[in-house]
Amino acid sequence: MSIDPINIGGVPNDGNGQNLRSGGQIINDNFAELDTRTAAAQARADQGVSDAAAARDAAAAAKAIADAAVPATALGDSVPQLINGVVPASQLPSFVDDVLEFPTLEDFPEAGETGKIYIAINDGDSPTNPTRQYRWSGSAFVLIPSSPGSTDQVPEGPTNQYFTQSRVRSTTLSGLGALVNAAILATDTVLQAFAKLQGQLNAKLGKNEKAADSDKLDGQLASFYTAVMTGATASTPGTSGLVPAPPAGSTVRVLSSLGTWIAQATGSTWGSITGTLSSQADLSTALAAKQDTATAPMTKRYTSTAQQFVAGGQFVVSHGLGKEVAVVETWIRCKTAELGYSVGDKLPYPSMGTDSGGSTGLSVVCTSSTATVRMGTGSFIMLQKTSGTTTFFTAANWEIYLEFMG
Whole-model pTM? Predict the structure, then answer.
């Protein structure tokens, strides 16, 4: 049965609610329902208490049976006892806490225990490898290298040994194999490469070996190209070879009419000239009359650096010919196009003064080492390139330089 509500209407005295009698009846029915529910709940609670007592008694009986099976002296020692539902660390076997963590190596205990691993969390090599592991050797904490770690920390075995330079240098070429005259390939092993190198060397010609291939040494013996040269005779042609070295005391070797090499000693006969050079009067005179290049005309030349036009200006050029100047040429070169001329155009310029509306031209006074150049005081003139008329030009658009010969 459920609890029924009382209809009280919408507003007081609206005539829609239940009357006192019917309302009281509903109240009585609801209380009767509550009494029934309370009795049922009480019965279930009493049963729960009874069941809990039975369970407690059963647990006590089971504990008594278990305690009877273990000696009292072993409780908490070889047989752990729960404390707050867990086994305390002191009652755990030693292998359960074989790994101990500490912030750094300095935080380790003064003496460790064998069979345990000690981890220093913040003593690693890098942020990606932040920890180091140690074990107790009996007197100190010893680092346990991480895998793969460094080869310096891994002991070498008898079979897989370390690769060292000294071992490579002393390794024998066992299994070299047949010698092959072929090119070395990138896919060859070291032994195959050595075999090919030796095969190539063995295929080279010796001094007295003749080339089987006509393209090698022109099919000749190697000694053919190292033999001493011999000259031709009236009936026998000469033989190719090397010019022999001169004997002691000789300066040159000449090929005689007999087809042999003979030494040409100082003072001996050479054609129609005999004796030493000082005894050759005609030859000596001819050589003495030979012109000295230091004084010969037109053998030296010097080009000055470019100068700027300045009315009435003067500059000095060090030509360094070391002798009298034979020819002086003055040139002007266009820097900015004007009067029909292009940049780089080169023109000869008068080195004598003229008077065409003002003093113009140049004067050049030379010595054996310098030249003094004076410019006219007037405006500078030239011929217009296309019309040929005399025209003043802009000094800043041109530069002047001189060439000396002597």
Answer: 0.31
